[in-house]
Specification:
Blueprint lengths: L10 E2 H7 L5 H9 L3 E3 L2 E2 L6 E2 L5 E3 L2 E2 L8 E6 L16 H8 L8 E2 L8 E7 L2 H8 L7 E8 L4 H5 L5 E3 L2 E3 L2 E5 L6 E8 L6 H8 L3 E10 L2 E2 L8 E3 L2 H12 L5
Parallel strand pairs: 9-15
Antiparallel strand pairs: 1-4, 2-3, 2-5, 5-6, 7-9, 7-17, 8-9, 10-14, 10-15, 11-12, 13-14, 15-16
Helix pairs in contact: 1-2
């Protein structure tokens, strides 16, 4: 009589599929709930399955490749570009630029977080859905650093108050470190570091302070910085740096 029991050793299937670049763990759990994942033809109805490999696993009827080595790319996203694969309105997406910017062997990569249509700067991309998810979680505390050019009156004392967090229109934003760059006039540059990355967080907080943001760039995400990477170009982050960062994430350390 055949043994139809599922394996009970190894890693959870969602984790393995995320590492294989299929999707984030949360998305994979939804795919399992929708009956899109199977093992040796048996459709899964629970993500609580452990495997030592992806042999025999299919998604939408297609075999899943082996877990690949984690790769991480830095892309200098221009303004006027969506962080998505497709746009119903036909607007330009990052994937139009990535076709030429990424190496031919990059395979399928997913953006770590998003940058708004009019926000430019550092966008990280990876083939490792597990690492993507960990980097995006507010609980991981991975810092994101931005430079904002804003019009209006503000002092360093005003910005220092953000260190305790702030509530805007019922949304609570955590600790923000903000420094007013030297200069004069009402159009000033401000550098901000935050650890949650909520939707439009920088713009909403600065607008709450009475400022009008007319340019916004992300210059850092965790230990990775945009440096002099040209707009619209990408580079692969060294494997040693990626592995060191993954170990730090696993320890729950804040960068």
């Amino acid at each position: 009589m055949a043994d139809n029991r599922l394996p009970e050793e190894g890693d959870r299937i969602a984790k393995l599929l995320a590492r294989a670049g299929v999707a984030s763990r949360r998305e994979i759990e939804r795919m399992i709930a929708d009956g899109r994942v199977a093992i040796d033809g048996k459709v899964l109805d629970t993500p609580a399955v452990k495997l030592t490999s992806l042999k025999g696993v299919t998604v939408d009827g297609k075999p899943v490749g082996k877990v690949e080595e984690t790769r991480l790319f830095a892309f200098h996203k221009p303004a006027g570009m969506l962080t998505t694969e497709h746009d119903p309105k036909g607007r330009t997406t990052i994937y139009a630029a990535l076709r030429n910017a990424l190496p031919k062997d990059a395979g399928r990569v997913m953006p770590v977080g998003r940058l708004d249509y009019n926000t430019e700067g550092l966008l990280l991309l990876t083939n490792d859905g597990e690492m993507k998810r960990a980097m995006e979680l507010p609980s991981s505390g991975v810092p994101r650093t931005y430079r904002a050019r804003a019009f209006g009156d503000v002092t360093q004392a005003d910005l220092d108050k953000l260190i305790e967090g702030i509530e805007v229109d019922g949304v609570r934003y955590g600790r923000i470190e903000a420094d007013l760059e030297r200069g004069s006039g009402r159009n000033r540059w401000i550098e901000l570091t935050l650890r949650e990355g909520k939707n439009r967080e920088v713009r909403r907080v600065l607008e709450h302070l009475g400022l009008e943001v007319n340019r916004l760039l992300r210059i850092g995400y965790g230990p990775f910085h945009i440096g002099d990477l040209p707009r619209g170009q990408a580079l692969e982050i060294k494997r040693g740096d990626v592995m060191a960062f993954k170990r730090e994430l696993a320890r729950g350390g804040r960068q």
